[in-house]
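Here's what a typical entry looks like (Glycosyl transferase family 1 domain-containing protein):
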Amino acid sequence: MNEKIKKILITQDYDPLKGTGISVATFGIAKELAKQACSVTFASYSDSGENNCGLVEGVNVVKLESIEDLENNILEADIIVNVLSFSSFFKPFGVTVGLMCEKLNKPYVPWIHTTIQNSKFNNIFGVNDYVQKTALYLTSEMLKGNMCRGVIAVSSAVKESVVSFGVDPEKVRVVYNGLNVEKILNDVRDITEKTNDVICIQRLSAEKSSTLTVAVLANLKKLVPDFKGVLVGEGYDKDIIMSLIKIFGLEKNIKIVSKLGNGDLTKEIARSKAFLSTSLTESFGLAIAESMLVGTSVVVPDIEGPKEITESGKCGFVFENTDTIKPAQILADLMLKNPGPEIDLMKKKAKEKAVKEFDIKIQGKKVLDLLWVK
């Protein structure tokens, strides 16, 4: 690459070191870009109260204090990557970054992390449909801006959503949320025993359909009364979930863990026989990809990202969305029967796909190639 070092600015509306799914993905790519002779700044206006500013693993982490701060960071960069999503309520930061780039004549590449399906949960937050459509219109206009050099979508499903707004498909590049394959496999190399029957990793919210998760596990208890499960997550539905666990008599079956560090999380996945998702919308599914990598069978709904990354059942078990009987039966079979060659082959295919397609180094190169497009 015979070009001068590029100054890349990545913007996001919350702390990149927070450890959520999106942050793990975006900051992972930022670190890869920093290894490629790039100067990378990651700017957010996070009010987490934690002092996460400064040079972190080669990335300059900045907390924005004002619009002037944002403008100065944009002016100093050669290209800007603005992280955003089709949110259930309008988050104007990502769109504002794009509009400021237009004003300042700076090239930018929006990085979209959800499908349009996610925006349909607006009523939960008291956002009426007209306001939501207005927000989506603003987002779509930014995606079609003159200075927009391309769009990053975290799955083909997300790309379809972006294209549905009239964006040229040739401008949209699919870049999966990457896994640090080498580190994860090293973290779990000594784990040989499956001590959990099932693990669920999700935000406890309507979008992730935590109530359906509990319903599946209640049906599982009828088939495997003493199963052991771990539910990792926080969210505004937590009190509802805790109540449902008591109502269905699952207190001895399910352990709720609010948060695990990334290394500890992959170890917990590796200790589990199966990973369960009941999400109503999922653009990619980082925990699904991690499960595939470490040899844990995945049981996921036939929606968006999960269907895509499991290749419609070749690399995991796929059930009809909102069904709570079929996934319980699949889980019970995984717990009560010997895996057999078919399951072993499925897990082998899943791991091969994760190594070949989800490695953070591969995804980082895809982003770099897109940013260097003239």
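The chain has 14 helices and 14 strands.

More examples are in the samples folder.
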